[in-house]
Amino acid sequence: MTGPDAGRTGPESDPSRLIDERIRTLGGWRAETLADVRRLIHEADPDVVEECKWVKPTNPLGVPVWSHDGIVCTGEVYQRAVKVTFARGASLPDPRGLFNASLDGNVRRAIDLREGDTLDADAFKASIQAAVAENVRSRAEAGEARRGRRTT
Questions:
Q1: How many CB atoms lie under 10 A from the CB of residue 65?
Q2: Is 21 exposed, middle or buried (0-12, 13-18, 19+ CB in 10 A)?
Q3: What tens digit of pLDDT does each residue of 8-30 get?
Q4: Distance (Å, rounded) from C-alpha 64 to C-alpha 71?
Q5: CB–CB of 131/72 below 8 Å?
Q6: What is the residue extent of each domain of the chain?
Q7: Can you give 2-57 as a three-state secondary structure string?
Q8: 73-132 pLDDT, tens per residue?
Q9: What is the chain's Cα-based Rg?
């Protein structure tokens, strides 16, 4: 392993434990919301990999990130919202109108969940599955393009 976690052992090197700690330290509705989002992500894609990225002094536990052949989504926590940002959300269908933030960009889309909001679990899991399928498709296309450029 290389990078900032190289040589680390113990709970601080286990991304799942870092996310557990993040949820524990948050408390209240934001903790419940992030925990629910996390549970739904794992239900939608049992093979998803979770990690914490973008650790900095003002955010020592980092941002929870869920990946499968690329980033699926992130879970940022703010004072008034838990923001679930889909890395390739602009390319995903949104028949139930889950995306309510970052709507102007060409790549990402987000769901801002505020205190008292109810997340449509079925629609959210369908969005996770669509994001995974988009990542798998994109990775396969990139692999084909690389193979096509090789010369023997």
A1: 21
A2: middle
A3: 444 455 888 989 999 999 999 99
A4: 11
A5: yes
A6: 11-149
A7: CCCCCCCCCHHHCHHHHHHHHHHHHCHHHHHHHHHHHHHHHHHCCCCEEEEECCEC
A8: 999 999 999 999 999 999 999 989 999 999 998 999 999 999 999 999 999 999 999 999
A9: 17
Written as one string, the DSSP assignment of 113-124 is E-TT----HHHH
Quote the tokens at residue 152: 């023997």
Q: Nearest-CA neighbor of 103 among 116, 81, 115, 86?
A: 86
For the domain made up of 11-149, give the CATH fold.
Aspartate Aminotransferase, domain 1 (3.90.1150)
Retrieve residue 28's tokens.
């209240």
At 87, the amino acid letter reads A
Burial readout 81-110 (b: 16 or more C-beta within 10 A, e: otherwise): bbbbbbbbbbebebeeebbebbeeeeebbb
The token pair at 41 is: 């992500």
